[in-house]
């Protein structure tokens, strides 16, 4: 009989397509993935993966085993969710995956309040821009800026995050829009909605620098590096910044809350979800009031 852990590592290789990528996903080293894969192939006495120079490709039998193994894993996670859903006391750990800007500049300041209300619930918050799988228990709750479509999930709109242009009050070209230079994202994010919005406003004006995350944009704008597109809840709260006028309308992204349907009624998960909804509603910056139409 094969080892389930070997199968779990094989599934990661099948999903990601590389040994190194599977290692990052499972937070182990490359050698562990290779050893687990070899062990599974030895136990099953069949080649499951073709190891190419820069990728891994499933063999025909490997593809069939991957489909069966994925169903096994889904069933295992369903059992775990069912057990959690049956535990009604407001105690335990709830894991959240949230965009980094909402963790550092919004949610973190409410953690003390949550702890006072629910002292037996521990929130484990990961600042992640990428999608996570709720069915694979990579998180109990996810907050996203794109409406999630994962099967088996329940989705609710939390609010709207408005963006506007900001500059340091000491920015040298503050009163000369034709001389503005902009803080933008790098080429990996060209298809991101706020990058398209910012570049449309910048037009032919120069890009002063490119940074990969919104918190770095905030720091660069504060330092006077240029004009940046920031969430209004972040920019308006910073007294060193000024929201600068432009002929174009402001831009906004919807904020979505998603949870697996098997966990939505679990006491700790329900408490965390309701708290997120409440603190979002209390902040006017997330109710659309900051968007100039």
Descriptive account of the structure:
By secondary structure, this protein is α/β, with parallel strands linked by helices. It has 3 domains: 4-85, Arc Repressor Mutant, subunit A, CATH 1.10.10.10; 92-160 and 253-286, Periplasmic binding protein-like II (D-Maltodextrin-Binding Protein, domain 2, 3-Layer(aba) Sandwich), CATH 3.40.190.10; 162-251, D-Maltodextrin-Binding Protein, domain 2 (3-Layer(aba) Sandwich). It has 10 helices and 11 strands. It has helices spanning 4-16, 19-26, 30-44, 60-85, 100-105, 111-117, 193-202, 214-222, 232-235, 267-282, and strands spanning 49-51, 56-58, 92-98, 121-127, 141-144, 153-168, 182-184, 207-210, 227-231, 241-243, 251-260. Strands 3, 4, 5, 6, 7, 8, 9, 10 and 11 form a 9-stranded mixed sheet that branches. Helix 1 crosses helix 3 (30-44), helix 1 (4-16) crosses helix 4 and helix 2 packs across helix 3 (30-44). The chain is globular. The model has no long low-confidence stretch (mean pLDDT 87).
């Amino acid at each position: 009989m094969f080892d389930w852990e070997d199968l779990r590592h094989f599934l990661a290789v099948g999903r990601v397509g590389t040994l190194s990528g599977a290692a990052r996903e499972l937070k182990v080293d490359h050698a562990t993935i290779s050893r687990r894969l070899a062990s599974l192939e030895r136990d099953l006495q069949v080649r499951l993966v073709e190891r190419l120079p820069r990728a891994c490709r499933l063999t025909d039998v490997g593809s069939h085993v991957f489909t069966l193994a994925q169903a096994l894993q889904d069933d295992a996670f369903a059992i775990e969710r069912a057990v959690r859903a049956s535990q009604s006391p407001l105690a335990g750990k709830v894991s959240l995956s949230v965009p980094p800007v909402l963790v550092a500049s919004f949610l973190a300041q409410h953690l003390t309040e949550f702890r006072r209300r629910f002292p037996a619930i521990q929130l484990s918050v990961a600042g992640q821009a990428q999608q996570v799988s709720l069915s694979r228990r990579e998180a109990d709750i996810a907050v996203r800026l794109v409406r999630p479509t994962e099967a088996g999930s329940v989705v609710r709109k939390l609010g709207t995050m408005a963006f506007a242009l900001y500059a340091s009050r000491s920015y040298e070209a503050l009163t000369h829009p034709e001389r503005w230079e902009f803080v933008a994202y790098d080429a990996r994010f060209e298809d991101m909605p706020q990058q398209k919005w910012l570049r449309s406003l910048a037009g032919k004006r120069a890009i002063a620098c490119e940074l990969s995350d919104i918190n770095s944009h905030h720091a660069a704008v504060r330092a006077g590096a240029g004009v940046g597109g920031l969430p209004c809840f972040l920019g308006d709260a910073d007294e060193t910044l000024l929201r600068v006028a432009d002929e174009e309308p402001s831009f906004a992204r919807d904020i979505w809350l998603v949870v697996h349907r098997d966990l939505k009624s679990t006491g700790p998960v329900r408490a965390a979800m309701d708290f997120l909804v409440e603190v979002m509603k209390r902040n006017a910056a997330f109710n659309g009031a900051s968007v100039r139409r």
